[in-house]
# Entry
Amino acid sequence: MQIYLDYSATTPPRSEAIALLQTVLTQQWGNPSSLHEWGNRAATIVEQARIQVAGLINAPVPESIIFTSGGTEADNLAIMGVARLYSAPQHMIISSVEHSAIYEPIRSLERWGWEVTRLGVDGKGRVNPLDLQAALRDNTVLVSVIYGQSEVGTVQPIAELGNIARTHGVLFHTDAVQAAGRLPIDVQQLPVDLLSLSSHKLYGPQGAGALYVRSGVELWPLLGGGGQEMGLRSGTQAVPIIAGFGVAAELAAQEMAQETPRLIALRDRAFAQLADVPGLIPTGDRYHRLPHHVSFSLASADGEKLSGKTLVRHMNLAGIGISAGSACHSGKLSPSPILLAMGYSEQAALGGIRLTLGRDTTEADVDWTAMVLKQVLQRLIPDLSPATK
# Structure
């Protein structure tokens, strides 16, 4: 018996996306920039996908969707695309629980003289909007706060944060890779200027993403070339992958009203079944939370033996795929920077684990996983007692 519970890492591409990808790859392989019939057919496919992705977030015009190679490139285009508009370093604001696709380009900007404020979070991983209000400066040009945190599942108060930024005339970006297709997003109501998406997080193929750019927002492109994607992302579009992204986005929008409550019920079932397990500390916000996301920290992570990664390996041997939050560099484990930012000790931050649910997850999967996880923990840490952060 095998159970996949790592849907925040990637989702299996749905059959409709695979079928369309194969059809386009074998029959509609033209270059969308070419003016002949083969190019026109490919261009039509790209524009249809643009309409479908725009529909997922209720973008007012399809042209506000810029296709990229994935969520990482979309995040980089948002951060660096704004930064490159300025001849001198300015000021940006991010949260302390961002994905590395935000954190790393921000580090580059700091090396080039930019000032960056990292907003702290509470013990549940949530930003206080008053902290954003206090952090804004006259030279703040961009605020970027993740929509739903991939490691601990916390959903941020994006509407409130975006309104604060907009009131001060500051651009606001959110990485919505984990939220899109699971939570309703309406960019005509949500005060965001830039929003990142990823195909393979919502059952589309890997290798495609998108950045929503509100009309009137200017960006400097990262790539120079043929001027594709409204001049913001040069390079021949990956037509088959984009086509698969489009159909996956359309189907996610259609199914969300039924699928999201189902995932919430499974998520809460998993938390309930593991609530009495000594040594498992739930992480993230239980109420402001991604529908599919379950996460814990081991109460006492004693080096390699009790790290989250050790637990992942043991669960894998039992045929169950979960993930850990701590990172491994040159053979040495490093504590999760997300859990550290939330106030966890270095020891506890080595013990983060995540179970993320998806379209194929059943109640039986959740029940079996909870039973196996308890057995593995009893074997690894039989005398583990609850501890505080």
